[in-house]
Amino acid sequence: MRTLLLVVCLLFATLPASAAVINVEFNFTPYLAPADPNAKQVDTIPGKAVVFLNNQVLAEQELEKRDLPVLFEEREISPAVWIPASSMGPGLRKGMNSIRVEFTPANPTQPYLARFSWSEVTDKETRTDDGAGRSTATNYGGTGKEERPVKGKVVFERAFTADFAVDRAWHHYPPITVVSPADKSSLAALLKERATLFKPNFAAAYKLLEKQPNLTVAAMQKAKCLENAYKVGIRVKAPTAEQLEAVISNSPELVLQGKGGSPLHPFNRAAFEKIKGDENQMCAAMALFTLYPPRLTVVRNPAGKWEIVE
């Protein structure tokens, strides 16, 4: 019996550890069906794509007509919209989540194909052999896609698990079901306080940018990204309580936007062109739109105080 147990233990000890999922990537592409089924590229459909994470607006993207390459024997299409879970921000829950993509074409009468696909990214490579001495390696698994012939608006939705996400305390706060006039006044004051950070010497603003893991703030400070924006006359104006619109979704998050879905902090994009150099323009825009995005997510902590989700 002991010998059998030892053999079993040795067997399991030699088995490779299962790969852990460290990311999930979603792709969306609306395109015209090519006349040639073996075409090397396809034409995308102009329109507007809106991505929702757990019923909250995550991103909006205007799509223009573009030529996208068709890749590999599997006829994979380079995505028009790429949505990695690792870039979804703090709204991503540890465990079960949902993603929804809504696309409205510029021409509602034009028939087209809409493709939505997904792939899990793992921490280990999987190797396959085709039997002819050739092998391939990939760290993708759990792939799939859905494609539909459509006309007009199209919606794709999928549940997915993100055990790699950070479990944040506010994920477990009670859902917000009502926003009172007093709440709106407090929220307007919170936004006004944040707007005051955009002023010389910008130390507090750069400090806030450090909370974003995808930004190299030291390089941004060296390039004087915020200073350049201020120098050409760009300013930040916070909305008043009357100009504020709160989107309730029966979750701990509350999304703030301007009336009618307008941006919280409207910037004159043409003003960025006054900044010398494309890289400086891009840096200034990235810094400002990170600090003052079109929408902001807030939560109410157990003490009843509103906080901006960074």
From TrEMBL:
Residues 123-146 are annotated as: Disordered. Residues 123-132 have a biased composition (Basic and acidic residues). It comes from the Bacteria. Keywords: Signal. Residues 1-19 form the signal peptide. This is Uncharacterized protein. The lineage of its organism: Bacteria, Pseudomonadati, Thermodesulfobacteriota, Desulfuromonadia, Geobacterales.
